[in-house]
Each structure stands twice: as C-alpha cells, then as structure tokens.
Amino acid sequence: MRIILFLLFNAQLLAGAVPHYHFSEECKRAAKEIFKLKLDLAQNILEQEKKSDPDNLIPLLLEDYIDFFRVYISEDELLYFNLSDRRNERLKKLIKGPEDSPFYRYCLAEVQLHWGISRLKFEEYLGAFMNVKKAYALLKANQKAFPDFVYNLKSMAVMHTVVGAIPKEYRWGVEKLGFEGSIEGGMAEME
User: What pTM was estimated for this model as a whole?
Assistant: First the structure.
C-alpha cells in the first residue's frame, strides 16, 4: 500500500500537478487590467494562464478580484448572489496550496476580505463580520510567519478601513474581538 501511495504522489509531482503560487507575466498583466477595470480582458488573459499552468493558484485570486469589482461597482444584488458560490469553490482550491508560501494565507484572506466588503455593501453585517474576522486572523498569522511580505501590509490597511466602515451599532462586536481601525487610518496606511 505504501508503495502505491508513494508512486501516486511522485507521479503527481512529475506531472506537475502540484498546486503552487506563481505571479507569472500573464498574471501580472491580468492584474494591471483588473485595476484598470478592464475586467473582460483580464478574464481572457487568466483563461489562457489557466490553460498554460492549470496548477497555478494566483489566477483564482485574480478572478476573485474580478468578481469583487463586478459586484461592488454594479451594486447588483442578483449578481452578488450568483457569484457568491464561486467564493467557496475558490477557497476549496486555495486551501490545497503549499502552506509554507506567504501567498497561502494571503490568498485565503483576500477572498474572505473581498466577500466581507461585498457583504457590507448589501448590509449583511453578520456575514461580513465573519469574513472580515477570518481575513484578519489569516493576515495576522501571515504577518507573523512572513513579516517582510509586503502584500500583508496592503491588506491590513484595507482591513483597518473596512473596520472603520462598520456602522456604529455593530462596532461593539469588532472592538470586542480586538479589531481596530478607521477609514482615515486605513487610507493613511495605504499611502
């Protein structure tokens, strides 16, 4: 039995079927297009990247950005509900990535953060709180494990801004769990 498991594992390695994080040139190009809000173009680039490197997990993160921007900008509640199933699919795939990479917790946190912000938009405060809580814990752990990973700092600034956006009647919950932040403080950190 051990021999069979050993052979299966090594066959996966040889076939390149090991999930990994690679910010390829195409991923970088897609990210630039996403932040220019050229979402369809970015999606097309990512489709090609997924064909050329199907085990790269970075396209999942970038596709989540696309969904986030589509939902947040459109304010379309039906679109929000239709795309929310993708969150769980992405998290299931991202959790298979190598845990010793700084992108592991970061990617999981980003997906949680995107959906936390989206839930705030549609006044789903409890769900938003749960997503933000998960994202915060992941980012704190990642910051401890990889203190020089600059993407953590960006996301923590966003977290502080999100906490500042929570209505005052719900703020007691986040403060009780040790979350702090303000819109002004988070924006200053981004700069």
Answer: 0.81
